[in-house]
Amino acid sequence: MHHVMFDIDGTLVESYDLDSELFCDSVKEVTGIALDADWGRYHHVTDSGILQEVFEMNGIPNKEETEAKIKRIFIAKLEHSIASQPIQEIPGAESFLSLLKSMSNVIISIATGGWYESAVLKLNSAGIDIDSLIISSSNDHISRTEIMKHAASKATRGKNYPCTYFGDGIWDKKACEQLGFNFVLVGNKVKHNQNITSFKSSNKALAYVGL
């Protein structure tokens, strides 16, 4: 049995830049803080993890209330954006997911550093079918590795199946190294020996999974 796990932004959907822009705008609107969008500098590259670090650095009180307000504004901005300009899938993503779903020896999950609500909005906007998919997110933990472990536990029901993770960031690669997951890079933000530019070449992606 193979477990295949996916990131969302920049991996399944073309939302990396939009997500970063709206996240920074939302934080600025609520707190007045101009975020450093070099996400790799943060200890936990997740929505909640970044906010907790920023709150600590800037002495922001009422952390839970402030995060909830930022989240509400971010979701509203995202809804407004995709209403006029739907998010696009990474070419071939939905077809590749459908192919994996048809395989009896494959389990699929999603582990994203974003919030669950925004994950669903982006995937639905891109036309990606999320029915039956396990989605773990920043709602579940501030740590990316813990989010990935959460997704794996739910998807495999605690069984130790080999896991391949498709992601686009250096934080994805580092998390896979920590967890012993097989990492496949989507795009060109990081140097890695296993790399695809899209899911249109499904045979190449399947080969990296070991299928």
TrEMBL record:
Keywords: Hydrolase. The keyword Transmembrane does not apply. The keyword Repressor does not apply. Transmembrane segments: none annotated. One of its GO terms (molecular function) is hydrolase activity. It holds the Pfam family Hydrolase. This is Haloacid dehalogenase domain protein hydrolase. InterPro entries: HAD-like_sf, HAD_sf, PGP-like_dom2. It comes from the Bacteria. Gene3D superfamilies: HAD superfamily/HAD-like (3.40.50.1000), Putative phosphatase, domain 2 (1.10.150.240).
